[in-house]
Amino acid sequence: MSLIKFLTSKTFLKQIVLAFVVLFVLTFIMLKWLKITTNHGEFETVPDLKGKSIEVVQMELKENNLSMEILDSSNYNPDYPKFSVIEQDPIPGEKVKQNRKIYLTLNPSGYRKILVPDLKERTFRQAKPTLEALGFEVGKLTYIDNIAKDRVLDMSFKGEKIQSGDMLPKTSKIDLVLGNGTRPTSE
User: What domains, with CATH codes, occur in the chain?
Assistant: First the structure.
């Protein structure tokens, strides 16, 4: 039998048609199976979690068939309660699949602590930018008799004397004792 006769025979044509039918049926079944297992077209809406505590977030995500993963704590933000959500990914209102992880960034319990620099014997003009660059604030300035005008003689925080090397929360107000430029009187 020649190749052309074989390709035009009824047996070969039946086999080709049968192969296409089987392929079509398998493709149809596979697509239906994928649609069912991947919940095609079914979405959950991501709730707004900003400012909410972890307990509330867990309940809301469970209600919406979503899960959470805590990425990290960020820099302290005083506008949000401690240990509350300050960022989330995906954003609120976005449509996602069931059981999708929502990535959260939490607000820490307070400002991180920073090492107090050695400012003694420096001028106020040097001390102020050093403190501000580290995230501290200059508090009350007190002047005492000392020949070195505007020279830092002592530091305190909330009435307690502090030394260089102490750890204080960022944004703490550090009070400075400065010389007023007059010679102390000795009696």
Answer: 44-106 (3.30.10.20), 113-179 (3.30.10.20)
